């Protein structure tokens, strides 16, 4: 635990870099704390109205964060500290559940493998739903396999599913397949599962859908989930990902581990207790769904995080079946390898330019138009800013500030990079009415020209 706190605190707000999707959670949590809406404010007191389409992280993250903001103020430090608490809860949960299944040494080694794994911090410290969802997944597996409590399993899988729907909604079809092959009295157990999961899922939609009785809202949700990546061809995504990533280090690393683990499971299958057969089968179905979902995506590796964590958790217990020394040697080697990567070759970027830009603009105390830079706008007072936001697969939220007419033009314009697709078509307006003021990292800040310099 101390190791995790040390690794996290030394780059609390700089690594991983504060980024667009994370900022959406901060924005909606702030607005829920002040206005009771899990929505993005696009101009003072005006909301987007599309909260049902962009809320990709559930209330298990946004509501606790909203409470923190209500009791203190909006800041990145509070959000990251909340995620550090989730990391510690995740590690304790892994240790406890693995210890119950396989004993204390297995619990310690599983915890060490996860705690030394760089993406555990790269994804887990971002204010997102991956780690909270994984915590509910672990406890759901415990209730399903160890306790056979299907109502609690439903509740926990439901909470996991709404924490990060893109990753954990796949638990629901995985459960149905598991139920078909491994459980008796299927209808009663399915009924109990539904009773457990329907509450968390219903609350999720009640909170994010503007009008729960609007068929238009539900059609938009269905269309988004049919193609959440706004890709012309999901089949082309699959082919492209296979061609691009088959030799990627992450794919090779976990591919080899999964091959080894799977071979050990099949080799010792006849000697395996029924509860472990159930556990391995459920996990196999779930990670198969994850791989398919990843292949359909534009190649976003964060979708593989549950697969990676489950692989690390299962590694020592499975390799130790009849060969404890081999399992121990491989586990220790991988822990040392993970630590080396964590401190020497960590892949996520260290950067503070989003919050530095937000602080600079806030101190100017001028109206500002922000073009698709939610990681900046989410840290600026709402009464000061106007913005346009574009999520993949979602209509544009707000109004392009460059198109605001006199005398209502904002004093400042902020956007990221020189070839911003929302700026280039209106470059003449930017050049005519604004002049460069500053640049912080990749964020360009323009100021309204004086009346004398305007045409």
Report on this structure:
It is a single chain. The protein is an alpha/beta fold. The chain folds into two domains: 2-344, no CATH class; 353-453. Helices cover 62% and strands 7% of the residues. The chain is built from 21 helices and eight strands. The strands form two sheets. Strands 5-4-3-6-8-7 form a six-stranded mixed sheet. Strands 1-2 form a two-stranded antiparallel ribbon. A hairpin with a 2-residue loop joins strand 7 (434-440) and strand 8. Helix 5 (76-102) packs antiparallel against helix 6 and helix 14 packs across helix 16 (274-296). The chain is globular. The N and C termini lie far apart (62 Å).
Total strand segments: 8
Helicity level: 55-70%
Strand order of the largest sheet: 5-4-3-6-8-7
| Number of H- or I-type helical stretches | 21
Which segments are poorly predicted (pLDDT under 50) over 5 or more consecutive residues? Answer: none
Number of domains: 2
For the largest beta-sheet, the strand count, sense and barrel status come to:
6 strands, mixed
The chain-level mean pLDDT equals 91
What is the H/E string? HHEEHHHHHHHHHHHHHHHHHEHEEEHEE
Choose one word for the global shape.
globular
In terms of structural class, how would the helical and strand content be classed?
alpha/beta
Strand content: 5-15%
The rounded distance between the terminal residues' Cα atoms is: 62 Å
Radius of gyration: 24 Å
